[in-house]
């Protein structure tokens, strides 16, 4: 198991925890909690694979991520009352996972000969935000990534850096560069509470 | 027309009726009622085919299921005031259809050389619940299968039995075994009103 | 740039404007406004390509439509307060775009050897309404095309005319015939305010 696997697992755990907590909060049954956790964790990757024609999606061929999501869900079911204390740890895990998935998705696009800046970036964004968009649609919320926080833009920055880095560096350097930029930017946004502006907000005191 | 076709048609009718009734209840127009009925009936199969790379989906190549859904929708439009009396009949049809679709989906996965227990099971679950998840997302409800009743778990039991049965039996035996287990379990759950627990329910008197 | 490109661009602009306006109205952030605009503009085409197995979808291979959507979004962000005055212009653009996309989608289906009336029609409908269904699901609305106005039916009429015209005419004649029928019917429906009936409406004074 490489460091990379550890990053990916941290991401899957963070995504699954957010899905499971959402499910518990919305009072769905335990099957629903599991589905929401798994969907949040692997939904973005499934969308990516369906779009680039990489079927059946990786998640279906190798159930590792599914199993990790299921274990995380069971963990959440027993500990959800105290998870609020670990909110920042989960956010850091999430940022690390986002970096890892951005890099692997950008790399996967290149491996499938989808070799343009546009496709590498959009594929990375879909992988990064797809799962949480599905989660929010399932529980009747306007997707969180559309409403608050700078999330997808860090993926875009990482994917662009990957695209250009692969022309100059070989081996794993582009992957790690992409990871550092995405995760680093995301952690900065969390620390300094940076949000995108909402248009029309200045027209009144409404939130 | 074999017995199997009859099972599938009963399922398509039950799914389409549930979609059409939802549409009427949510006061969408007649085109919306038709789309909801068709989506509920064939949405799970389309998701399955897109995921396993079986494109264009079977439904698009052979419009039989679409035509049956459309006829069921027209029927519902004229009889929806009295359909409540046939609630149990529709539930039985739904259980029979769920069994038939679970078996054909598990079989389709095997035919596409997706020959692992994990993929056979997930493909069967997606086919079984995909349509009703889409229906509920379209009408702004948290999917019913996440909230109440033991539904998908009967599909999982059926798919597992199919996967192991195909090693020991030939011909249609695995199909019929899967059908009997899925449909039988589902009817038991309906008769005894078995629901999954909701986490946190014991912490207060809330529903 | 042919007249056809102009029609498609008018459609993309109209779709993107409707997505961006929805986003501003629902108070999502500027990233969300962009995603909603792009999804509305190209979502139907992506669904079509995933379903017919034309992966990666055209939009990912050629970012022209994405760029036009992004420019339209920027324009809307600066002018949304006054766009209400151009409501009818946007509707006309939308009708023109609907006609163009119906024709290109029907043609694409034929080019992929999906040569039945049923598949040509459903593929055209999915392309025509897919984007706006996604937009409405993202912002927690029951899709507008299910609730009001005769929208998809004009696409169906156009696709049917395309299917039969290709047996008798060569070159671009079927494309233009399909375009004229779809756009013409749609404009008639707007002008005369034709809506589909809602079932049960006559049972009381409810809306």
Automatic annotation (TrEMBL), chains A, B, C:
Residues 6-79, 92-165 form the Glycine transporter domain. This is Glycine transporter domain-containing protein. The chain crosses the membrane at residues 6-24, 31-52, 64-83, 116-138, 150-167, 173-194. One of its GO terms (cellular component) is plasma membrane. The keyword Coiled coil does not apply. Belongs to the UPF0126 family. It is a multi-pass membrane protein. It comes from Methylomusa anaerophila. Pfam families: Gly_transporter. Its main location: membrane. It is found in: Cell membrane.
């Amino acid at each position: 198991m490489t460091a990379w696997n550890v990053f990916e697992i941290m991401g899957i755990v963070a995504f699954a925890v957010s899905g499971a907590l959402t499910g518990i909060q919305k009072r769905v049954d335990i099957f629903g909690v599991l589905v929401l956790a798994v969907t949040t964790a692997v939904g973005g990757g499934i969308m990516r694979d369906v779009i680039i024609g990489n079927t059946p999606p990786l998640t279906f061929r190798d159930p590792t991520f599914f199993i990790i999501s299921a274990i995380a869900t069971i963990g959440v079911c027993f500990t959800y009352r105290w998870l609020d204390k670990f909110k920042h740890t989960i956010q850091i895990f999430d940022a690390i996972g986002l970096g890892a998935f951005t890099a692997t998705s950008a790399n996967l696009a290149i491996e499938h000969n989808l070799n343009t800046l546009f496709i590498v970036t959009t594929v990375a964004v879909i992988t990064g935000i797809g799962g949480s968009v599905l989660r929010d649609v399932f529980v009747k919320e306007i997707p969180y990534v559309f409403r608050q926080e700078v999330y997808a833009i860090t993926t875009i920055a990482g994917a662009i850096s990957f695209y250009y880095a692969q022309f100059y560096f070989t081996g794993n350097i582009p992957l790690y560069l992409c990871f550092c930029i995405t995760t680093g930017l995301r952690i900065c946004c969390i620390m300094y509470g940076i949000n995108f502006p909402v248009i029309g907000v200045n027209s009144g005191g409404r939130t």
